[in-house]
Amino acid sequence: QKPGRIFSTSHLHHANGIPGKKCGTIILSAEELSNCRDIATMQLCANKLDKKDFFGKSDPFLVFYRSNEDGTFTICHKTEVVKNTLNPVWQPFTIPVRALCNGDYDRTVKVDVYDWDRDGSHDFIGEFTTSYRELSRGQSQFNVYEVRREKGGLILNFTVAIDFTASNGNPSQPTSLHYMNPYQMNAYAMALKAVGEIIQDYDSDKLFPAYGFGAKLPPDGKISHEFALNGDPENPNCVGIEGVLESYFQSLRTVQLYGPTNFSPVINQVARSAAKVTDGSQYFVLLMITDGVISDMVQTKEAIVNVSWGNILIIKNGTVGKWEFSIQYTMEELDGDEVRVSSRGRFAERDIVQFVPFRDYIDRSGNQVLSMARLAKDVLAEIPEQLLSFMKSRGIEPRPALPSSQQINHFLQVQ
Fold first, then answer.
1. Is the pTM of this model over 0.90?
2. How far is CA 209 from the centre of its chain?
3. Range 396-404 average pLDDT
4. Which CATH architecture has domain 10-152+409-414?
5. Cβ partners under 8 Å of residue 357, min gap 6
6. Any idea where the domains of the chain sit in the sequence?
């Protein structure tokens, strides 16, 4: 249209619709076109975008939006799709500045990044905002933007506790559950890796507090039921599940397996951390891997009844033996599927303990991958429902989303 003509927003209702049916509303929005005749040519590339395709990487494309005077956005350009890459380089394209921002150099321009899907259900990777004035600076240097993607606001904290009691056997002997076999993982490492590699994707910082219990520590032989596997009591965090495994193997070389098998110190240790968070922004999961009968059952029951912060996952290691029946009965007493755990006349408010006997998941064909997948599935099965019950019991609504980021780089040349 010629400059100077102003159009107002109008509402047009379909006059000849289907009786008794709502046929919708057509809304026309318009604004005065500027005199700007500039044409912009730009090219964009991205770095380290999110992987969205299960079997491949991503097939990213960009959608540009012009912001309107009423705060809404209108699509003004789409790029081509670049197949199977997390570091795409799109072809240069030309667009009238009037189409991009109606000649207003400081008006917001929004860019969405999508992963293309054949059926049209494109996955959202992220977005960033800019302006034509900012884009223009790309003539002399790269402009760098952070691609933001809204995520849920719940932080999952994953803690590991490993049984270092003497009943596991000498780690240097093949009969030990802690046997340090150079060719394959022992039962503890398998259980830790199976559950940890699934749950780590839900822990944003990938820092996992890891403890051992039931060992004598150097140099004075003091017995501990909550020692940091990495040797640093002030900062027991290990980087990733691989970091937990490294600290576990290092502890086997330095501590003396002893006893008894006390659960409550580690449970209370996690409870102290959880007590600092009262707004429902975090949920705690404790994985305990053990081989024997709990020595402090009374204290453990008390600790569980006091727990409201999350879930306790117990994996019972070992093979069938004369004590197996009593061990399993003891553990299932803590798993409140049938009867809620009680202590001193008080009952746990939720069923927060999940007990799984490791031997039930050893694949007879020797397929460790299959065994680990089945174990992780059953150990983690109850967490989603229990997390929701925790939030609902406290009237906690989903929190505002938190941004994550990758980078997207582009340069622009104005003609």
1. no
2. 16
3. 63
4. Sandwich (2.60)
5. 316, 328, 331
6. 10-152+409-414, 155-393
pLDDT digits (tens, 9 = 90+) for 24-45: 777 777 788 888 889 999 999 9
Closest CA to 126 of 48, 184, 54: 48
Please state the separation of Cα 47 from the chain's center in Å: 21
Q: How confident is the model at residue 335 (pLDDT cuts 50, 70, 90)?
A: low
Amino acid at 291: D
Q: Which residues pair with 26 in a beta bridge?
A: 12
To the nearest 10 degrees (0 to 180), the angle between helices 297-306 and 324-334 is: 30
CATH code for the domain defined by 155-393? 3.40.50.410
> Closest Cα to residue 314, out of 339, 338, 331, 296?
331
Q: How far apart are CA 165 and CA 326, in angstroms?
A: 18
Determine the Cα–Cα distance for residues 233 and 204; give it in Å rounded to an integer. 22
Q: 171-182, pLDDT tens digit by residue?
A: 999 989 999 888
How far is the CA of 98 from the CAs of 105, 108, 110, 340, 345, in angstroms? Answer: 10, 13, 15, 67, 74
- Dig out the tokens for 148 from the structure: 């933001």
CA distance 90 to 407: 15
Compute the distance between CA of residue 67 and CA of residue 134 in angstroms, rounded to an integer. 15
